[in-house]
Amino acid sequence: MQFFENLADDEWEWYIGKLYTNIFMECFSINNINSVVELAPGFRYKIAYALKDIKFCGMIYVIDENKNVCEYIKDKYSKILPMATVVVINESFENSIKHLPKQIDLFVSNHSLDDMIISKYFTYTKNNQTSQNDFVLAWDSLAKNPKIYNHIIKGVYNSFIKFFNKISIKYVAIAQYESNLYFKNKTNNIKKITQKCFEKVKYLVDEDKNKIKLALNYYPFGEDKRYLGKELLSNTQNAKNWIVGEVKRQ
Ligand SMILES: C[S@@+](CC[C@H](N)C(=O)[O-])C[C@H]1O[C@@H](n2cnc3c(N)ncnc32)[C@H](O)[C@@H]1O
Fold first, then answer.
1. Full domain range(s) for residue 165
2. Is ligand 1 within 6 A of the CB of residue 52?
3. Within a domain: residue 98?
4. What is the mean pLDDT of residues 41-62?
């Protein structure tokens, strides 16, 4: 899948990174986090900022199927986290297991479920997405095919089950807030389809909802109006859009 926009907004990376910092500190015992696996960062570095905040100096394994992303991440994360060891795994989530240790303290992934779903649809339709408009059209086309999206959702969910069965993970932190395409009224099909997958993955994790709410009750920008709108309070800072806790033992 192609990327139509590579530039990160550093303030946004910092802000979401802070939410992860709070989640790590409120919900986990951070002294026990020595190994981390991150799935699908894209050209983004929120998680590196959060790990820097907790003075992480262990091993971080970063999985992304895009080779350019892996090169970018190796360089960027090594600069943000000079005390940590950064290992990039240029594989799909499904094929990454063999490159990882059998035990990892923390699994983290920010806003990746939608990309995992739509990139599978792009592969299925042999579409080589080039613009944001192609992306919106793809979601709208997928929404018309419940049989296909249910099949894709099941595949993504099964890859989480397999991953959590093969690798002993202690903590999980996944955020899946609504994308700004939703707020720009471009499509609400991302939300509709991704939510189904999100609820299934959420079921795999034992959560302490009060701790999550406490961690997200955070207003670093004071009265700045951009950060007090519904896009944040009911979205990025809404505990419903997070999966945080320990993997359920089956
Ligand atoms: C836009 S990024 C995700 C959002 C980003 N983490 C953030 O914080 O804004 C999407 C990334 O997911 C990766 N990706 C999609 N499906 C994947 C899969 N099955 N396995 C590994 N990486 C995948 C893509 O290569 C891309 O780099």
1. 10-247
2. no
3. yes
4. 98
Q: Is the C-alpha dihedral spanning 233, 235, 236, 241 positive or negative?
A: positive
Which token pair is 234?
Answer: 């009911």
Query: Cα(90)–Cα(110) distance, rounded to whole angstroms?
Result: 17
0.85 exceeded by pTM:
yes
Residue 2 lies in a domain: no
Ligand 1, pocket-test mutation among 15, 46, 65, 107, most atoms within 8 A of CB: 65
- Residue 62 in any domain: the answer is yes
Q: Percent of the chain beyond pLDDT 70?
A: 89
Classify residue 4: in a domain, yes or no. no
The Å distance, Cα 61 to ligand 1 centre, comes to: 14
Write out pLDDT tens, residues 60-97: 999 999 999 999 999 999 999 999 999 999 999 999 99
CATH number for 100: 3.40.50.150
Q: Is the CB of 92 under 6 A from ligand 1?
A: yes
* Nearest ligand 1 atom to alpha carbon 112: 3
In the chain, the number of structural domains is 1
| Ligand 1 contact, 110 CB (< 6 A) | yes
Is residue 114 within 6 Å of ligand 1 at its C-beta? no
**220 CA distance to ligand 1 middle (Å):** 27
Write the DSSP string, 97-149: GGGS-SEEEEEEEES-HHHHHHHHHHHHHT----SHHHHHHHHHHHHT-HHHH
**What separation, in Å, do the N-terminal and C-terminal C-alpha atoms of the chain show?**
34
